[in-house]
Write a structure and sequence with these properties.
The complex is a heterotrimer of chains A (about 325), B (about 270) and C (about 300). Chain A is mainly α. Chain A has one domain. Helices cover about 70% and strands about 0% of the residues of chain A. Chain A is built from 13 helices and 2 strands; from the N terminus they run αααααββαααααααα. Chain A has a two-stranded antiparallel ribbon with strand order 1-2. Chain B is α/β, with parallel strands linked by helices and about 270 residues long. Chain B is built from 10 helices and 10 strands. Chain B has helices at about 55-60, 85-90, 105-115, 125, 130-150, 165-180, 195-210, 225-230, 245-250, 255-265, and strands at about 15-25, 30-40, 45, 70-75, 75-80, 90-95, 185-190, 215-220, 230-235, 240-245. In chain B, the strands form 2 sheets. In chain B, strands 6-7-8-3-9-10 form a 6-stranded mixed β-sheet, sandwiched between helices. The longest helix of chain B has 20 residues, at about 130-150. Chain B is globular and about 65 Å long. In chain B, about 50% of the residues are buried. A two-stranded antiparallel ribbon of chain C has the order 1-4. A two-stranded antiparallel sheet of chain C has the order 2-3. In chain C, a hairpin with a 2-residue loop joins strand 2 and strand 3 (about 145). In chain C, helix 1 (about 1-30) runs parallel beside helix 6 (about 150-170) and helix 4 packs across helix 9. The chains are: A mainly alpha (about 325), B alpha/beta (about 270), C mainly alpha (about 300). Chains in contact: A-B, A-C, B-C. The interface of A and B includes residues 173, 181, 195, 196 and 307 of A.
């Protein structure tokens, strides 16, 4: 089974690269949605999957990134892709400020607080906070992104931008996972008291991972704003956070492959059964319940041996 | 207060000194005015009946609880008020009474946790795999393997901690603590749940740790182990110290016999 | 002053509803240490069942207003209690020994399932309670004109709370519930059937939640399939405010939150009304996570 993994990945990457040549515009658009959710789920996975912190307000960070880009672009005419780092920075800083006083809370309390934060952000957006967010209508006519003098318009073109960013994210996150930082997150998830008792500053890592995950969600927000050219509060509801939570749990907390597969299932599958669109959430709810009994570790759980190449050199001992 | 001030220990410098340590939970005084010292290079045992407050003393030393009164001095520095990971960085390490390993992770990853605080690599260095970060990871891995081999778990590095036997899990916890390169190792019932053979091996291991120049403070109910390895014993009952001295002195102390050994004979 | 008292009584009515829902959260949390995310949806089922029974059986026409209402209340209580027991059986019992995260995810799944089942049955639009059967009278108390329905809701919720309090304090099963909340293991050793306690909690909580749903329907005249989550979150906030696991705490927390919200909406900003409860929630968790009446417990290491 293991021998086929590089082959499977190569096949998957190749089919993504060539997909726009064979699929119609609508199908490519669905793939783009899947890409954005993959990106968001990967960023939530750092917090929820790797560090075990129950965050169900991830859509708030996504929203802040998207709105930052939209405001900077429409008010100050900053090219949308240039706002990418700033969106990440602002979403990350927001997460640090919000998480600082609550991050010590026990599991499900943190869950409730993050739901609360998500809702407060959404209500603030609806209420046109600081006169910047445009109220319930949101912000529209965001300009198209330009890359190296080339304007990205078609879903086919966005496909490469979004999935390119997903690929970069996976590349960086795998490296992060196989490092001191990544391991510290896992220690935190496994046993906080033991982690602190072995010299790990648990508060620092909780905050750092919230900041990093939120920053990445913020950057995904920029891509969303660029793709839609309009942002409004309804795109960042509580259910977005639930969907992301579900993708991470379904895929297998901490497993990057699992999360990509789960994003295809959760976002892509309902598109195949559009006539049952109404029953989609019903089925999700049922799947969540059954899954926890039958396979709580997720579809493709992370292997317990996630090690960097340097450590593997020692494996002949 | 008692006649057992350690006479041969006085020549040595105390690495750890507790002075008038007191801790109450609600109305209950778990630890009451406890003072004792742990001399550099020694093996000191903290004993007493169940509920005497031994583990609470450990939790006070490592900052899991904050004391109400009293001082904890380690290597001439006050530990009071420091957060746990800061205390560990000063050169203390501990194991837990009810094994607290990272169960889903491999033995190697567990031991690597002990190397963590001496490493520097942050988010960006890790994502971009800077050469210094790679160097550091390699050094940490070498250190972790050494500690695994030291406790005799060299062949189990790739096994998830939860799949190890009970005795091996205890030893893995010791390896993880040793990886922090402590000056003082605090063991909370290291022989708990071990059979006779495993206990014998543990006594050997404790001796080897001492040979590395590491001071040891331990809680243990297995009296043979305590009498065999400890140079000095501190006896607690109902949160207060009732005796302190060499194993032979403590064995003959009337208060100890009455409170602890006597009670055990009756049971 | 008139305005203030109107807002205060309105807050008490809504607060009474929050308190009734909060009791369900707090009892389940007390015994299982689990946040029953689907509890808010059981509340919605109470509202919808009440509407269906009211219109299809025409209870108030056949039995008169008072008797009809009593029968309706009892039927809603019974049906939602059964739903609660089924929920416990299907979503929580299989996970009793699992890690917390599993139970939390299952609870969320149950919530999503219940909510969408309701949407598929009734449709996504607001459902309206028939206004011809509701009392629209107002009471004149010392020159103040208060809607009768509001007064009835405050009285009914307080009555329910008193009944529950007496039940928990005085009966054998009530004592068993309190014992299991303090220490499940010890309760089991003392011969208490913990499974029965859990079942009881999942009957009582939803029964009260169902009534609360019915009250919302009667008070506001319309219900929606998603309302359970907002009410649920606010009731949970009330439970935290009073100290989760603490039954009188949930009552106090509910009434207090209702009043804070009503006054906040009236005197600060109506647009931020829904954010008030969430801010209270976050503040209380930062300042005093054990709640107003909760007790501090040391973590065992």
């Amino acid at each position: 089974m293991k021998r086929f993994k590089p082959f499977t990945i190569a096949l998957f990457v190749a089919s993504l690269v060539f997909a726009p040549l064979f699929l119609n515009t609508y199908q490519v658009d669905v793939l783009n949605s899947i890409g954005l959710y993959t990106l968001l789920a990967l960023s939530l996975n750092l917090i929820l999957g790797e560090a075990g912190l129950f965050n169900m307000g991830h859509a708030a960070f996504y929203a802040i990134g998207a709105y930052t880009s939209a405001i900077l672009n429409t008010r100050y005419q900053i090219p949308i892709l240039w706002t990418l780092p700033l969106s990440g920075l602002i979403a990350g800083l927001f997460a640090l400020v919000v998480a600082r006083p609550v991050v010590h809370l026990r599991g499900d309390y943190l869950l409730i607080v993050t739901i609360g934060v998500g809702e407060i952000v959404r209500i603030a957006l609806v209420n046109d906070v600081f006169g910047l967010t445009g109220g319930a209508n949101g912000i529209f006519s965001i300009s198209r992104p330009k890359l190296l003098g080339f304007t990205i318009r078609q879903p086919q073109e966005f496909h490469y931008l979004i999935w390119g960013f997903v690929a970069l994210t996976i590349f960086l996150f795998i490296r992060l996972k196989q490092s001191r930082f990544g391991r510290a997150l896992n220690y935190l998830r496994e046993d906080e008291v033991a982690a602190e008792g072995i010299g790990i500053d648990t508060n620092y890592y909780k905050l750092a991972v919230f900041g990093l995950g939120a920053a990445w969600a913020g950057m995904a927000g920029t891509l969303f704003a660029a793709k839609m050219t309009i942002v409004s509060p309804e795109s960042f509801s509580f259910w977005e956070s639930v969907m992301l939570f579900m993708i991470v749990i379904l895929g297998g907390a901490g497993s990057i492959t699992g999360i990509v597969v789960a994003a295809f299932l959760v976002i892509g599958l309902p598109e195949l059964f559009r006539e049952f669109a109404g029953a989609r959430m019903l089925v999700f709810g049922l799947v969540m319940m059954v899954m926890m009994v039958v396979r709580p570790q997720g579809l493709l759980p992370a292997r317990s041996q996630q090690l960097s190449p340097t450590l593997l050199k020692e494996s002949n001992r | 207060m008692n006649s057992f001030s350690a006479n041969d220990g006085d020549r040595e410098l105390p690495l750890l000194a507790l002075q008038g340590l007191t801790k109450t939970f609600g109305g209950l005084t778990a630890v009451k005015d406890v003072s004792f010292t742990v001399e550099k290079g020694a093996i000191v045992g903290l004993i007493g009946p169940n509920g005497a407050g031994k583990t609470t003393v450990f939790n006070l030393i490592t900052g899991n609880y904050q004391s109400d009164r009293g001082q904890i001095i380690f290597a001439d520095q006050l530990l009071n008020g420091l957060r746990t990971h800061r205390i560990i960085m000063r050169g203390l390490a501990r194991t837990f009474q009810n094994i607290r390993l990272f169960h889903q992770l491999t033995a190697l990853e567990n031991v690597l946790a002990g190397c963590h605080y001496r490493m520097r690599g942050g988010i960006i260095a890790s994502m971009l795999r800077f050469p210094t970060q790679q160097h550091e990871e390699q050094a940490a891995a070498d250190c972790a393997w050494r500690e695994l081999e030291f406790v005799g778990l060299g062949q189990y590095g790739w096994i998830a901690a939860k799949n190890l036997s009970y005795g091996d899990q205890r030893r893995l916890e010791i390896a993880r603590a040793l990886a922090t390169q402590p000056r003082l190792l605090i063991l909370d019932e290291p022989a708990g749940g071990m059979n006779e053979q495993e206990t014998k091996a543990l006594i050997g291991l404790i001796g080897q740790i001492q040979e590395r120049g590491i001071t040891i403070l331990l809680i243990e109910h297995d009296m043979r182990l305590v009498m065999q390895v400890c140079e000095k014993l501190v006896v607690l009952e109902y949160g207060s110290k009732i005796a302190e001295g060499s194993p032979d002195q403590v064995r003959c102390d009337s208060k100890v016999i009455e409170a602890y050994l006597g009670a055990e004979d009756e049971a | 002053m008139e305005e203030f008292i109107q807002q205060l009584t309105n807050g008490l009515a809504v607060g009474g509803i929050y308190a009734l829902i909060a009791l369900g959260y707090t009892m389940v949390y007390g015994v299982l240490k689990l946040i029953n995310f689907a509890h808010g949806d059981l509340f919605t089922y109470g509202a919808y069942l009440g509407l269906t029974l009211l219109t299809s059986l025409a209870l108030t026409d056949r039995l008169g207003f008072t008797l009809g209402m009593v029968v309706l209340v009892l039927m809603v209580m019974g049906l939602v209690a059964v739903l609660g027991a089924i929920l416990e059986r299907a979503a929580y019992r299989p996970l009793r020994e699992s890690p917390r995260l599993s139970a939390v995810v299952s609870a969320l799944g149950a919530s999503i399932f219940l909510q969408n089942a309701l949407m598929l049955i009734y449709g996504a639009r607001f459902q309206v309670y028939p206004d011809n059967i509701l009392p629209t009278a107002t009471l004149n108390i010392f020159g103040l004109y208060l809607p009768l329905m509001r007064v009835l809701i405050v009285l009914a919720s307080v009555l329910m709370m008193i009944v529950l309090y007496v039940f928990i304090q005085k009966t054998r099963i009530g004592t068993a519930i309190r014992a299991a909340a303090i220490d499940q293991g010890a309760a089991r050793l003392m011969g208490i059937d913990v499974n029965r306690v859990i079942l009881m909690v999942f009957l009582l909580g939803p029964a009260l939640g169902g009534i609360a749903g019915l009250m919302v329907g009667l008070y506001y005249g319309q219900v929606n399939f998603t309302m359970g989550w907002v009410y649920g979150m606010k009731a949970f906030t009330a439970a935290i405010l009073g100290g989760i696991g603490n039954i009188p705490g949930a009552m106090v927390g509910g009434l207090l939150l209702g009043v804070i919200e009503a006054l906040g909406a009236a005197y600060l900003s109506i647009a931020w009304k829904d954010a008030i409860a969430f801010c209270v929630l976050i503040l209380i968790l930062i300042i005093r996570p054990t709640g107003l009446l909760g007790e501090r417990v040391a973590d065992k290491i």
